Amino acid sequence: MFSIGYLELSKEKRLQILTNSTFTIIVMPRQLFKENDWNVFQIHLLEILQSGSVPVLIGDKNYLPLQDYINWKRVLVTFHWNMLTKFLPFLSSLVDMDILQFKQYGRHVMEVIFSSKKSLLAVILESMHQRQRVPAPCFDPYHPKILFTYQPKSNGNQSYDQPGHFREGKHSLLDLRMPPEALSFINVERKPGKSWPPEKFTVVILTYRRQYILYKIVNALHNLPFLDRVVIVWNDLLTPVNKTIIPELHVPVYVVACGKNSLNNRFLPFDIIRTDAIFSLDDDFTLPQKSILLAFRK
To answer: Which one in 66, 218, 221, 257 has a CA-CA gap of 20 to 30 Å to 95?
Structure first.
């Protein structure tokens, strides 16, 4: 129970009592919190989560911290003052699986958020960013070691699609800037003279000692529409890259190496990627071009 003499007990004694309790009832005052009551409430709540007991809050739940970031319904049970006659039957009706879920999520909140000052400060800043609608800072671009680069030969038929010194068409501040695809229902890539940057995607392939299959996968991407470039993450740090396994495509191909062999290398923010859309592939899986285009345009 939430009592005035709670802090008079030693911390070891309090944790011992809470550890042996399945539920711990916190009775909130009807009037506004005083400074001493607020300190006792915070200490009591953190010790309950630390001990693995399930908090039962009776009263106003608006005093819970970080309500826009923590789903407190998964951490504790709340009852209003008008429901005092029903909270004991409700607690008796909870099965072991429900109690275990409360304890697991409470332990997760305690370890991830309240375990250190650094993690708590990060959560507070994130909550402030969400309230003020401030976007989070971007990740620093990762500069991989480029092992091999293939640049396609220039093609006059595709010259209109390359970035130039200016964009076709004129715009004023009052013009509605929309892609031609939205205005005329014509594919963006097939409309020359467009005044909107083309929609493209990048294919990232993670490979490890499957050179023959890698050749087939990359070769299947030849003349794939909307493809900007291909990035091959070479996870085999011991075997050098054989340039003959990279077929000639209509787009640039980059073979890069990271500092270690990891399956998470495909998720690194490579600085050579210029598109927002990224299609990740393994070196043992192939898809027809129609399926890739369907996934991109959808």
So the answer is: 66
For residue 3, the number of C-alpha atoms closer than 13 Å in the C-beta half-sphere is 8
pLDDT digit string, tens, across residues 59-101: 877 778 888 888 888 999 888 888 888 888 888 898 999 999 9
Q: What is the pTM of this model?
A: 0.51
